[in-house]
Amino acid sequence: MNFEGLNPSLAEFAPPLHPALEPVLDPHLNPNLVELDPEGVSLEGLPVPESVHLMEGMYSELHTAVSEVGVPVAASHFDLHEEMLWVGNHGGHATSFFGPTLERYSSFQVNSSDDIRQIQSLENGVLFLTKTNLKYMSRGGLIIFDYLMDESEDMHSLLLTDNNTLLVAGLQNHVLEMDLNTVQETQKYTVEVPGITIMRQSNRFFFCGHTSGKVSLRDLRTFTAEHEFDAHSGSLSDFDVHGNLLVTCGFSSRMNGLACDRFLKVYDLRMMRATTPLQVHIDPFFLRFIPTYTSRLAIISQTGQCQFCEPTGLANPADIFHVNTVGPLIMTFDVSASKQALAFGDSEGCVHLWADSPEVTFNAYSRETDFALPCMVDTLPHLDWNQDLVPLSLIPVPLTSDALLSDWPAANSAPAPRRAPPVDPEILRTMKKVGFIGYAPNPRTKLRNQVPTGGGGFGRVELCSLGRDMLKVTIKYSKLGLEDFDFKHYNKTLFAGLEPHIPNAYCNCMIQVLYFLEPVRCLVQNHLCQKEFCLGCELGLLFHMLDLSRGDPCQGSNFLRAFRTIPEASALGLILADSDEATGKVNLGRLIQSWNRFILTQLHQETQEQEGPQAYRGAGGSFGSSGDSVIGQLFSCEMENCSMCRCGKETVRVSSTLLFTLSYPDSTAKDYEFAQILKRSICLEQNTQAWCENCEKYQPTVQTRNIRCLPDVLVINCEVNSSKEADFWKTQAEYSFQKAMMKRGGFDITKGKEISLGDWKDLGSPDTGHSYPSVEELKNIWIPHAIKMRLTKSKELDVSNWMTEPPWLGPTDDPESVYIYDLMATVVHILDSRTGGSLVGHIKVGETYHQRKEGVTHQQWYLFNDFLIEPVDKCEAVQFDMSWKVPAILYYARRNLNAKYNLVIKNPIEASVLLAEASLARKQRKCHATFIPLMLNEMPQAGDLVGLDAEFVTLNEEEAELRSDGTKSTIKPSQMSVARITCVRGQGPNEGVPFIDDYISTQEQVVDYLTQYSGIKPGDLDAKISSKHLTTLKSTYLKLRFLIDVGVKFVGHGLQKDFRVINLMVPKDQVIDTVYLFHIPRKRMISLRFLAWYFLDLKIQGETHDSIEDARTALQLYRKYLELSPQGGEPEEFRKVLKGLYEKGRKLDWKVPEPDSQSSPKRKMPLLSPPCVPSCAPCPFSPC
């Protein structure tokens, strides 16, 4: 901020303004101020007179607090991560206030002499800028780093460009760039016009405000000046940027002095020129955009006047209000990130908080603030001596060397183990004995995964739910990676799980939900377009893998790779860093609900695009019409939004939505059915401020939302993001449990009332009309398994819980207007403080999926927890114990949904994907080609051989730790990405000639090219400098998918890892892996280089690997295997060959000898047929 326009006497602390600088306040300034303590610091905020009424949408004064009496406030800043307001003064002292009541949180000295000129909050602390010092401190006042600049510097402003980079500028002719990780200066940019006091940033430019009155626009990467606006002739006071508008205020030079300019200069950043200046009715000193409803501007004068106006309209004198400051001047002004609060700092050390509502929040999603722990000495918990499990360590005792009373001699004590709880008499009565083993039916008096705790089996028994199947599952890695991990232990079904170790795999459960929606599965598997990163295409390819799998887990690496490239996903905060997932700082329940909204919108847009000219080469017809999306038919619901102003003006707007968010009432004590809350959320009514064209200003309006049609799939985000919503669900579940008990046995189950064991058993015996087998399974249930929705002739919505069985139409119901929705899936957030929790899904799997996988026709609920899949009871899908299992998303599907849609899947991948295509590399020439594409007469047929090899690069290094015994434990494997894929012909006149040799372009950062093992060099994957045949992963993936669908047999060495990294599911009968052909069980695997030397007398992989050479060698080894082990031949003969191979390998330590040291034993080994190996066709390339 530029201080040249301030009262000159203020900087000198003139005696008339500050007579004694004593820590007391002049009572005539404000009679409502509280008395301060002797230190001059008020411990509470200064209350606003009771007559002040906060009107919703209008800013009014809420609280006033004192930072340091008599010392002017120099900087104020709303914390971007917590509900805090930071204030720095001219004495170098910083103070923070918590919440809208401005409770003092921390107060500490930043600099002993210089004033604090700017404050910037970060995730782990706060940055303070003074004249020659940048200090980073924790919110409690501990110094993280202290960076001293040159004494000649005079810094005034800082700008955080990203999480780790900072720009610092001042009155000198340069701007410093600093790295916050290393706390070092990384760059020094020279500026033409010195004196930068204000800096802002947009998505196009850095904006620098100069003391000369100019605003320069600079490039985001090079910091070079692109444009310059000469805004004010005297000096610049403040400016702000929003969208395409730049607005400034300042001073003009008049009669050898500075005069405040009452015209705000407005610039259009699209045309880079000034528009009509905006005349205001006050002397502007500060200004900020407050884009809540429109692009409003808040203009503040130094004397405390504030005016709101539109940057392209006329200022209205009626929109002016006055800040009741203690001091005569306003020194600082800031706006919270939520735009709900304004902060003013005055020259007497007071800060004033204005807000538009009493329950104001500074940020949309603030994290919880850590407070100092209270003294525990006087607040010790009550200890119940009757409980055996009470930890006596809760009692603080002093350290002493004397023997304690509890230190009993061994002679006076005897072990007394806790007695086991008695066996249920019902089990003993129905038990049948076979030998010494007894069998009895489960009486269902306790829920699964529950154990008695407390009391040791005596007195009242409390049940502690474990829910271990829903906890976060992890993969234990060994030396072999995942090859020896027993996935079958976690999944005994034939459905495919998803692996969780990939970044952003938190969405696995939602991928499963979409997969088991039959119309969505068929839609994306029929979809294919030319976009490199299309979520619809990648989801279809992933669903195809889930179809092929027979219980083996799949991984969505290609889908998540495309997901990370979508700009909207990054803007919504859906892309998580590895540290966020590991530390569990993210609210997964809120995150998966945002992901749910994003994926439905993205699929709707991608499948709605024209399929004609944009369709992928060779793709078949589209699933739906070009103008309508199947996603829209399934999920979309047309809404009518009506806004009624109090003047009587009504505005109706029609929109559509793909899902609904539950809206809860303020009262949690009332009994509500789920259908009531659902109707309330769909037909929402709320009061808010909106622009009225009739009144020509913002007015309180009543906004109502009505539904015009019903969707086929009802998607509901539960929005349980705080304890208030969780208490509401818990209360409603208790009400539902009471009503269910009253309906079953006539008992009144009230809170705190004890029921005897006999009563529980009587209630637990199911009657003929109830579907629940036990009372325990009625607990924590509020949502129904079915919902009935109907639109009346007047378009009013009727919603009710549906519990009856067919016939489900009433005598007055129209079959076309009545929709019965069955619960199809629930996604829940499992709370776990140790791991940060996890997301699991309960999915009702339909008949078609069981028929395809298991050959039976029935419906069943399953729990999907990444790669853990198990059948569950239907009541478990709707039971939500809010202490550890929080609902996030509900999917209700209309009955007989599949009959409405075409569920035929036509493979959209055709043979044309194998034809010649252009390379992405600009320098690639035909003379550098390493392969010959297939001709039409060479198209592969079922059973043809194809040699395959792939090379990889590393995107993330492996994370491992050393155990205490010195062994290595892999925490997270390295993340690999395919870099080159080669396929060679396996038969015909061109056998051994490659027809695919694609280098895969990647946009992600490569940490290790593994050149020694892959042959990939830096630059090979860069389209600007590469000379290779460069393609996209999607293009090459489709070629391999076509070969799999045709039925070719792939021959290679170590193909299991290749297919895993490429993310392909290949049937086992189409894979011929030479690593297993020449392998004795329980012995080591043998490298391709050693096998080629031993059997073929070939020296390969000399300096680096070459995928063409490796693929050819694998084909020759397979031919050699057929020669050594012909069908019908003696297996003992081939075993002797393998034994000789292993003996030779052990002697040479599995290393290929140097040239001329030893000859290959190829000619010495016994052969079952004449020693002629079919030779490959001569390679047409040189060198080879």
From TrEMBL:
Subcellular location: Cytoplasm, P-body; Nucleus
Documented EC number(s): 3.1.13.4
Top enzyme class: hydrolase
Keywords, in A-Z order: Cytoplasm, Exonuclease, Hydrolase, Metal-binding, mRNA processing, Nuclease, Nucleus
Cellular component, GO, one term: nucleus
Region (Disordered): 1149-1168
CDD domains: PAN2_exo, Peptidase_C19P
Cofactor note: Binds 2 metal cations per subunit in the catalytic exonuclease domain.
Entry-linked InterPro entries: PAN2, PAN2-PAN3_catalytic_subunit, PAN2_N, PAN2_UCH_dom, Papain-like_cys_pep_sf, Ribonucl_H, RNaseH-like_sf, RNaseH_sf
Domain of life of the native organism: Eukaryota
Regulation: Positively regulated by the regulatory subunit PAN3.
Catalytic activity line of the entry: Exonucleolytic cleavage of poly(A) to 5'-AMP
Any GO BP annotation: positive regulation of cytoplasmic mRNA processing body assembly
GO molecular-function term, one example from the UniProt record: nucleic acid binding
Residues the record lists as binding a divalent metal cation: D949, E951, D1058, D1110
Entry cofactors: a divalent metal cation
A Pfam short name: UCH_1
Cross-referenced SUPFAM superfamilies: Cysteine proteinases, Ribonuclease H-like, WD40 repeat-like
Domain (USP) ranges: 496-895
Main location: cytoplasm
Biological function: Catalytic subunit of the poly(A)-nuclease (PAN) deadenylation complex, one of two cytoplasmic mRNA deadenylases involved in general and miRNA-mediated mRNA turnover. PAN specifically shortens poly(A) tails of RNA and the activity is stimulated by poly(A)-binding protein (PABP). PAN deadenylation is followed by rapid degradation of the shortened mRNA tails by the CCR4-NOT complex.
Domain notes: Contains a pseudo-UCH domain. This ubiquitin C-terminal hydrolase (UCH)-like or ubiquitin specific protease (USP)-like domain is predicted to be catalytically inactive because it lacks the active site catalytic triad characteristic of thiol proteases, with residues at the equivalent structural positions that are incompatible with catalysis, and it cannot bind ubiquitin. It functions as a structural scaffold for intra- and intermolecular interactions in the complex.
Subunit annotation: Forms a heterotrimer with an asymmetric homodimer of the regulatory subunit PAN3 to form the poly(A)-nuclease (PAN) deadenylation complex.
Similarity comment: Belongs to the peptidase C19 family. PAN2 subfamily.
Alphabetical list of HAMAP family matching this protein: PAN2 (MF_03182)
Designated name of the protein: PAN2-PAN3 deadenylation complex catalytic subunit PAN2
Organism this protein belongs to: Zosterops lateralis melanops
